[in-house]
Amino acid sequence: MNAPRAVVVGAGIGGLTAAAALHRDGWSVTVLERAEALEPVGAGIALAPNAQRALDTIGAGDDVRALSAWQEGGGVRLPGGRRLSQTPDAAARRRFGGPLVVAHRAELVGLLAARLPEGAVRIAVPARVADPGSAGRPALVRTPDAAFEADLVVAADGIHSDARRTLFPGHPAPRYAGFTSWRMVVPRPERPFVPHETWGRGGVWGTVPLRDGRVYAYATAAVAAGGRAPDDERAELLRRFGHWHRPVPDILAAADPAAVLRNDVYTAAAPLPAHHRGRVALLGDAAHPMTPNLGQGGCQAIEDAVVLAHLTHPERRAELPDALAAYTAQRRGRTMDVVRRSARVGRLSTWSSAPACALRGALIAVAGLLRPDIALRSLDGVADWHPPTPTYAAGTRDA
Description:
Mean pLDDT: 91
Number of strands: 18
Strand order of the largest sheet: 5-4-13-14-15-12-16
CATH superfamily of the domain at 5-73 and 103-174 and 268-349: FAD/NAD(P)-binding domain
Distance between the termini: 40 Å
Oligomer: single chain
CATH class of the domain at 5-73 and 103-174 and 268-349: Alpha Beta
Order of helices and strands: EHEEHHEEHEHEEEEEHEEEEHHEEEHHH
Number of helices: 11
CATH architecture of the domain at 5-73 and 103-174 and 268-349: 3-Layer(bba) Sandwich
Helix content: 25-40%
Low-confidence stretches: 392-399
């Protein structure tokens, strides 16, 4: 019997996880990526225990856990350096069954791509869904040079998804969340530091070590959409954050201005009617764009991928319409709950009035004294998720 054919549009974290999971289940998989190179630009990604357990289903969980250099708890600070709260790593392990892993995106992309056959990933190939297909006919994906018929199309083409517009043309586009983000990877400062997230007036800064000796840093600020620095983005960060506590100025001093990424943050304006249509399944940001405040954008895309692969196993190929309906049923409510929860934290982080920020800091400090693991509550019902099939991490590791 010929293997069923899947086409994945987009070679980001979610698309590659879906491709690896489908390939593992016996699908013939082709991944089409419009970018000129598979390796993403320099940035980190946080993978909570829910994503790690999902990756265990394709045999990648332990490899991902090995990517992390962060073996300490994090904390929340003020720009002057005062520590408001600290979250011990052991508390996260007890609450969610594992640690938080922060890795370089390029390492994760390489790890996932290595689980696919040679030639499965095609770069510099823009693709669009020409026909979503139906129970009685395959879907059709077109590129400038070819057309691909597929039993299943996974549309993982990002926040401004062309596939989403094709499937649901009247649906509201993602809306600007009210703040922009900067990300960078730099050499680790000579002066030791503790991983932290610092909240100031209208802005947030985070610093996390990576396994290779470098540091992943990120920042957000409440600014108008579409803005750009008049000189360069490192200079903009120096103006906004250069006077904050160490290691913030040290990291900015080490940053290459050309390597600082700036992206406006978008979130879903409304839930999609469904996460599928015909033989096309939307995945990750294409289905449920969210702010980065819970660190769940990539994690939810990974969850999508393994749930989709589980429901569309080739043994159930004749039931694909039912499988995709089940995919929508299982993922739509959960992911939109995470979208809303993340947006609430995002709004809190953009407060800019001095009295409001003072109150926010006091509440965080008191909560941290009373319950050191209070910050973890925002991930209850999220980071403790388990995939639909038993895995090593979901079983003996958590016992």
